[in-house]
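Fresh eyes needed here. Have a critical look at this protein's tokenised backbone.
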Amino acid sequence: MCVDKQRKLKNYIDKYHLDSIFPLEFMQKLDLVDVKKNTYLTHQSSNFTHLYILVEGKLKVEFYNVNGKFFVFAFATPLFLIGDLELFHSQENNIINTIFAQEQSVLLSIPLETVKTFGLTAPGFLEFVCKQLSNKLFESFLFRSGVFLTVEDKLKRFLYYNSERNGFVQILERREDLASILGVSVRQLNRAIKSLNEKGIIMSKNKRVEIIDYDFLKKDIEFQFDVK
């Protein structure tokens, strides 16, 4: 590994305190992977050979079902683990989801054999994997479950939890992708955005959305969890 690559790798390890998460054997096998914007890291059903950890950039997690219907599961930001589902799922070592780079992204890779040999008995790593799976399950519950939630409620949940990570001013994804995450149609999503604008909760223009009444949004989300 070249000196510049080693320096970058050490910077990411220090930034995210990965030496406290991964066993020593992982640290010796870590490699850097650069993914250009609008290109793919993995394809659904391709061979599962490495675990990846997103340390810079933004990814889109996509899935096609057996009927060819397209879904967007999540927009991933650091630290996001790719391969945790496959690690504990019987898929004959196949990748479950397609991973697409929304932005220029940097990931760390660990060979699957190293993970299976040293990771499954490492408490720090297993705790990290459990937290990743828990976060994914929680976000899936927030945005795709809730038969009795209105489209507007789902959108408010998305904006509220996204604001916890990205602040009050957000750049929304393509309407088709965001609608897929929320499990609604683009037409329904557009109506919900318009309604929140008219109520003074947000102010949006094109992809840019600013949360104007955060206190109302927060109270409304807390009320949803109290009664649903």
Observations:
- The chain has nine helices and eleven strands.
- The mean pLDDT is 86.
